Amino acid sequence: MIWSDPNVPGKDYTLGNEHVRVLKNMVWRNLHVPHKFRCIADGRVGGISTVPFDPRTHRPQTRFAKLQLFRKDIAHYLGERILYLDLDAVIVDDITPLVDRTEDLVLWRNPRFDEGLTPSRYNTSMILLTAGVRPDLYDDFDEDAYAEFETLPPKGGTDQRWVSDRVSPRTPYWQ
């Protein structure tokens, strides 16, 4: 995913089209099953197939945009089986075993949660899902839910906290 947030001036880093191309190349070298690479974007990414960015879950200075992966109609844009990776991922070996799973939803379990260092059991930097699974994660995110969510201690959270608070602790995961 790549989008602009004009409410975050002077951010330490900016992810751009080159990051998308680098990730695409890493995926092509290290994923050994037939696949299509797509980028959800709010604009053009040269030479990369893009899907329109859905601004409904975006809140300025936050990362809730990933919730659009849980839209009921996401298969129309991304296909039936989706491996989501953050653009800052670094792939150094075969990732085929990551996608050779049959569960409808697989998340990365955050080891810092068990140490009490984060309120988020799962990290959404990497998600494997069957399209249409858990549409409530997208549908329930509205202004009222966000306002209530922002009051949770520690202060608020991100999409990671939103997902972690709503899925079962027994959700399949990578560690």
What does this structure look like?
By secondary structure, the chain is an alpha/beta fold. Helices cover 26% and strands 15% of the residues. It is built from seven helices and six strands; from the N terminus they run αββαβαβαβαααβ. The chain has helices at residues 17-30, 74-78, 96-99, 111-114, 136-139, 143-149, 159-166; strands at 39-41, 50-52, 81-85, 105-109, 122-130, 173-174. The strands form two sheets. The chain has a four-stranded mixed beta sheet, covered by helices on one side. A two-stranded parallel sheet has the order 1-2. The longest helix is centred in the N-terminal third of the chain and has 14 residues, at 17-30. The protein is globular, with a radius of gyration of 16 Å. The two termini are 23 Å apart. The mean pLDDT is 89.
Write the topology of this structure:
Layout lengths: L16 H14 L8 E3 L8 E3 L21 H5 L2 E5 L10 H4 L5 E5 L1 H4 L7 E9 L5 H4 L3 H7 L9 H8 L6 E2 L1
Parallel strand pairs: 1-2, 4-6
Antiparallel strand pairs: 3-5, 4-5
